[in-house]
Design goal:
The protein has 371 residues and is of the alpha+beta class. The chain folds into three domains: 107 residues, Helix Hairpins (Orthogonal Bundle), CATH 1.10.287.110; 110 residues, HSP40/DNAj peptide-binding domain (Sandwich), CATH 2.60.260; 116 residues, HSP40/DNAj peptide-binding domain. Helices cover 25% and strands 27% of the residues. Strands 10-11-15-14 form a four-stranded mixed β-sheet. Helix 2 runs antiparallel to helix 3. The chain binds zinc ion (ZN) (2 copies).
């Protein structure tokens, strides 16, 4: 007999005081004594409990047991090891050597909600009210799973342990294994009158609105964790967490590189030659922009501090605008004459080969062409 840990048999922790051990033994002995409890396995269990108490109530024996010296097979340390080997062979999974019933109360699951943001929301951060389908505490039974005025009763099959003992003959002798009680599903109690509102689950499905502050600087794929905002657990167990996964919609003008915003500015040929000032509409309102005379396609104008507020920190990125000089395509005769005259006067050089232009503007230009 006995592939069970003495502490687990008595349902006490390894550092239990002699008094706690005595109390646990008295309680179990009253419950399991063969004279009062003729149920199947009760006698076996009573012997286990008594043996566990005999060992743990004697300081010297307890000390030796703690060091692995108590073995029904007379082999120091062979006790626990044997049980492990046995379970490996025969697959006595679930519950193992523990005789403690499992709790109906479990932590609720985490939930994931996706939310789509505009790029403008990312610049400053935003506030959202998000609807989530979740489980909330049943108000009828307050998570007890029982009809009001009733309570769970001790399982008659396992006598509240949540486990049933089975004696298996093996080459090594009779070995007791423990399996979860199928009548109470290992809870040790059954619920004779389940709460009608939640069908004995202690929680009900509900749609809930969760208010969430989304910080500036988030990116697509980033998950914000809201501890305790997930569903309530079975039988009113603690809430899981809620995760908000961010998706940032593609903006028709601005794209993002780190904390900087990128855009392309079309500049007419005369403005590129003569220079001008213009007002552009950034994500946080109009910004005056000066274009110096002689600006070239590919030049980048940087507007400091008009990018994205980083997720950590407060120094906003920049808005970088790549210049694209627009060459006129349809000229009337008079305009054509003007340009030819200009070409004559400036002795415009012939086209000249140079290194391929890399860097920011190449990317901006690709984007511009593809859009
Ligand atoms: Zn209920
Ligand atoms: Zn049971």
């Amino acid at each position: 007999m006995a592939d069970q840990d003495h502490y687990e048999v008595l349902g006490v922790s390894r550092d239990a005081s002699p008094d706690e051990i005595k109390k646990a033994y008295r309680r179990l002995a009253r419950e399991l004594h063969p004279d009062v409890n003729p149920g199947p396995g009760a006698e076996e269990k009573f012997k286990l409990v008594t043996h566990a108490y005999d060992v743990l109530s004697d300081p010297e024996q307890r000390r030796r047991y703690d060091m692995g010296g108590d073995s029904p097979f007379g082999q120091a340390g062979g006790f626990g090891g044997f049980g492990d080997i046995f379970e490996t062979f025969f697959g006595a999974a679930g519950g193992g050597r523990g005789a403690r019933p499992r709790s109906r109360r479990e932590r609720g699951q985490d939930a994931l909600v996706r939310v789509t943001l505009e790029l403008g929301d990312v610049v400053f951060g935003t506030h959202r009210e998000i609807e989530v389908d979740t489980a909330v505490l049943c108000e009828t039974c307050d998570g007890s799973c029982c009809q009001p005025g009733t309570s769970p009763v001790t399982c008659e099959i396992c006598h509240g342990t949540g486990h049933v003992q089975r004696t298996v003959r093996s080459l090594l002798g009779n070995v007791v294994t423990s399996a979860p009680c199928t009548v109470c599903q290992g809870y040790g109690t059954t619920i004779p009158y389940p709460c009608a509102t939640c069908q004995g689950q202690g929680r009900v499905r509900a749609r809930r609105t969760v208010a969430v502050d989304i910080p500036a600087g988030v990116e697509t794929g980033l998950r914000l964790q809201l501890p305790g905002s997930g569903e309530v657990g079975p039988a009113g167990g603690p809430n899981g967490d809620l995760y908000i996964e961010v998706n940032v919609a593609v903006h028709e003008v601005f794209s993002r590189e780190g904390d900087d915003l990128l855009a392309t500015l079309d500049v007419s040929m005369p403005d590129a030659i003569l220079g001008t000032t213009t007002t552009i509409e950034s994500l946080d309102g109009p910004v005056d922009l000066e274009i110096r005379p002689g600006v070239q396609s590919g030049d980048v104008l940087t507007i400091k501090g008009r990018g994205i507020t980083p997720l950590r920190g407060s120094q906003r990125g920049d808005l970088r605008v790549g210049v694209h000089v627009v060459t006129p395509t349809r000229l009337d005769a008079k305009e054509r004459a003007l340009i030819e005259d200009f070409k004559q006067k400036t002795k415009a050089p012939a086209p000249k080969l140079a290194e391929f232009q890399q860097g920011l503007f190449a990317r901006l230009r690709d984007r511009f062409r593809n859009s």
